Amino acid sequence: MAQAQPMDAPYAKLVQLETGIARVLAHNPSAFTYFGTQTYLLGEREVAVIDPGPDLPEHVDALEQAIGGRPVVAILCTHTHRDHSPASKPLAERTQATIVGCAPLALATVGPRADASFDGDYVPNHVLADGETIEVDGKTVTAVATPGHTSNHLCFAYEGALFTGDHVMGWSTTVVVPPDGDMAAYMQSLDKLRQREDIIYYPAHGDPVTNPQQYVRHLSGHRMQRERQILGLVRDEALAIPDIVANAYPGLDPRLVPAAGGSVFAHLVDLERRGLVQRQEELWKAA
């Protein structure tokens, strides 16, 4: 494995990470995408594209240039948020490649979505099941189902690397927002990754993760700590989600408050299913 390169790459430029793995950074920085969405190219004589990203003309042009006329085996999407899958359609038109990967999913969430809306125009030629494979240059790419951030989320394993989309990010914890985001499923998916033996994670946002199992244990521990914190806050009095957020996330960037509220709601829904909290209209109380 090559030494992991930091996330300071220029936009719309091909950066070689290691043999058979390169990336192009989309120019869509935000509070939820960090510097932007990283699109990965796998293979040498032929390529597969992971998370083509937003439908920005300069990004699609950069991907076409990076492909350089090589055959495109597949365009793979981890999930259907609008910073991940929309460029699949124009890129497929330019390269004649098939779109495979996650299932189509377009939902309206409760209130305006904080991180990214769903791509309602995503139409895959084939949906990959957990464990299903494709080949690039004679090497195997395997779909790894990781629901939680969204119910249709997939990671992709290739030659010791795992492309983790938004399930594991290199700069921030993952947003889990009901009704489609599910905290119990997210935790189970983290445990699934912890039992794997991947050498490095390449997330869609943020730096590569070079200590995968340790990092996944950290993420799981963080969520369990947050759960205990929420239970402690609602043990003595019934609270609304904004009050829980204000207490659990002091000094939070105002742009991130809706996302924090979504994750708190996801925790509360999971705790309610387990009989640990009760809902009283807009208020939540320990059972």
From TrEMBL:
Domain Metallo-beta-lactamase residues, every copy: 36-205
CDD domains: metallo-hydrolase-like_MBL-fold
PANTHER family documented for this protein: ENDORIBONUCLEASE LACTB2
Official protein name in the record: MBL fold metallo-hydrolase
Organism: Sphingomonas limnosediminicola
High-level lineage: Bacteria, Pseudomonadati, Pseudomonadota, Alphaproteobacteria, Sphingomonadales
